[in-house]
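pinned: reference chain
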Amino acid sequence: MPSYFASSAMLIYDPAAPTVLVRPLPVTDTATPPGDVLGALLGRTRAGVLASLATPAGTTALAERAGVSVATASEHATVLRAAGLITTARDGSRVLHALTPLGEALLAGG
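pinned: its structure tokens
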């Protein structure tokens, strides 16, 4: 019987029950490739929105860079802002989204 928790093979014997040979389950490395870790954490679209803010942008420019609608870009910006990864400065009806130091560190892998 394969077992994830067995560190080596073992034999379980009980005269009143069937004998069981337990062996370690081969564990393969299923780590996410380094380039896609942020996508796995945040979701690919949101990670793309975050990465596209390497240069500050308004919501329309952000949507164009990320290849999403303005409404979707705005929703992602709201979540990223709530997480402390970006800031948004308002100037009348315009906004400018920019990375925070935390957002920069996340993109840099730190």
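why pinned: The two ends are 41 Å apart (CA to CA). The chain is about 40% helix and 20% strand.
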